[in-house]
Amino acid sequence: METPMTPLSEQKKKSLDSFLQSVNLVDLYQQYRWRQDRWSDGFYDIFRLVKSVIKAVKSKQLSRNHIIDVALWGRLRNIPRIKCLKDPIFLPLYEGDQKSSIVQNDPIIPVKMISNQTIGIGPTYISKLLRFAMPSMYGAIDTRLVQVFGCGDHQVSRLPLLMLKVQQGQNGGGAIGRDNWLIEYGNWLSILHYISDVMNNSGMPCPHPKQFVAEGLREQGQWIAADVEMALFSYASKEINR
After folding, report:
1. pLDDT, the chain, mean
2. I need a labelling partner for 77 at 20 to 30 A (CA). Which of 19, 70, 198, 242 fits?
3. 158: left (phi > 0), else alpha (psi -120 to 50), else beta?
4. Number of structural domains, the chain?
């Protein structure tokens, strides 16, 4: 991995290796579904948001409108509550086209930067925003993923990798427990990067829609954090809907 993150224990690596032998991550990636986003349609909304948010971050123009766009995609409740204390917000993820030294030194610092400059978005939507802003480094963590890969839902927890659980949020929605979420989000990033490394050495390329490669948003066949997150989201959705 290029960036220092929370080291995974040998036991956790063994658990992940066993899990990867039991699933087909390529199929899970292609089975990803969210609103209008389908692999067969080229993940149209994800493609649009990745282009838009990366461009805004690189040009230092990431605004409330971009955050609302991500929130609408994710179906966040109470979107009018979203505010930016500074607009556009300061989010130094890139130096030119490369990862900034901030991200390389500690990828959790940008999480804190977003939290300190916004109102109305919590762990899930901060992670979604980063997932669109720098998909090579970040993946989202939402309630479905926490139910299946966390420790709090014994009915559907399949691989308890994270010390997170879903709590009752405002307006009846789910929310991720906040007390230790920054530490566990660092763990989640380490998991996503470990899996992407395994997959990139497996001879099983990621079947990106063509326009992602054509626009330079992905390298042909190379798994990155956001791709792995999408596949794991598909797995979590299947387990919850059993």
Report:
1. 91
2. 242
3. alpha
4. 1
Q: CA Rg, the chain, in Å? A: 17
Q: At what angle do helices 123-133 and 109-117 cross, to 10 degrees?
A: 120
Q: Is residue 218 part of a domain?
A: yes
**What's the gap between Cα 213 and its chain centre?**
19
Coil/strand/helix, residue 68: helix
Query: Does residue 227 lie in a domain region?
Result: yes
Mean pLDDT of 213-242: 95
Does residue 75 surpass a pLDDT of 70? yes
Strands (E), the chain: 33-34, 37-38, 83-84, 94-95, 98-99, 118-119, 166-168, 174-176
Flag whether pLDDT at 175 surpasses 80. Answer: no
> Looking at the domain assignment, is residue 114 inside a domain?
yes
Classify strands 83-84 and 98-99 as parallel, antiparallel or unpaired.
unpaired
CA distances from 224 to 2, 98, 176, 196 (A): 12, 15, 24, 6
Question: Is there a domain that residue 97 lies in?
Answer: yes
The Cα 214–Cα 210 span in angstroms is 6
Q: Is the pLDDT of residue 1 over 50?
A: no
The answer to whether the peptide bond before residue 7 is cis (omega within 30 degrees of 0) is no
Torsional class of 172: left (φ above 0), alpha (ψ -120 to 50), beta (otherwise): left
Contact by Cβ (8 Å): 92, 102: yes
Domain that holds residue 173: 10-240
